[in-house]
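Tokens as discussed.
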């Protein structure tokens, strides 16, 4: 299949994000990374914040309480703000090249803090979608259906890249070709293996 739309997650795929490593270090008992990502995605506090349904302050209070973190909500929120570091080296050039042949979109579980900090990386994508604007989060099916609608694409026209197995599995269950990738090098390698570069 030659996709019409390449759909990329941001953190851990195109954007360097130190959040899960930093967060794991704060936990009373660190857990495997894939398990942490799944648990984070299911957290009521995270889901409320990343669907735009609560304030940053309430999000921080709930995360600190729910996860028993050894720091104040204010300190957590300050650290959380800087979890995403920006695009990996070479990512902007790759995206510019891909946009000559595909519709290139990002779909991120994000929030008002990170989205505003980077202006949604809008200059790098034809379509830039965040959960806090859509009111839906991955891995919920409604998120993917909204993304397809916004990209004006059918399930069979899209290739999706994410670093969370839960998100990849959810996309596949809807008939979207999805790839589990960790970091930009794996993105480039997967694209090359498929002949899409």
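Sequence:
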């Amino acid at each position: 299949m030659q996709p019409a739309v390449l759909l990329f997650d941001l953190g851990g795929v195109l954007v360097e994000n130190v959040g899960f490593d930093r967060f794991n270090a704060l936990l009373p008992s660190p857990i495997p990374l894939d398990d942490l990502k799944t648990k984070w995605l299911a957290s009521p506090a995270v889901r409320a914040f990343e669907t735009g349904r609560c304030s940053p302050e309430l999000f921080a209070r709930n995360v600190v309480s729910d996860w028993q973190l050894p720091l104040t909500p204010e300190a957590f929120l300050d650290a959380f703000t800087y979890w995403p570091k920006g695009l990996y080296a070479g990512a902007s050039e790759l995206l510019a090249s891909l946009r000559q042949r595909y519709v290139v979109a990002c779909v991120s579980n994000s929030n008002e803090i990170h989205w505003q900090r980077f202006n949604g990386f809008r200059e790098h994508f034809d379509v830039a979608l965040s959960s806090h604007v859509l009111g839906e989060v991955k891995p919920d099916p409604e998120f993917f259906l909204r993304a397809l609608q916004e990209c004006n694409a059918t399930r069979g026209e899209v290739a999706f890249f994410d670093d969370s197995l839960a998100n990849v599995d959810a996309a596949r269950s809807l008939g979207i070709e999805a790839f589990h990738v960790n970091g930009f090098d794996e993105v480039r390698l997967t694209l090359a293996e498929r002949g899409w570069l």
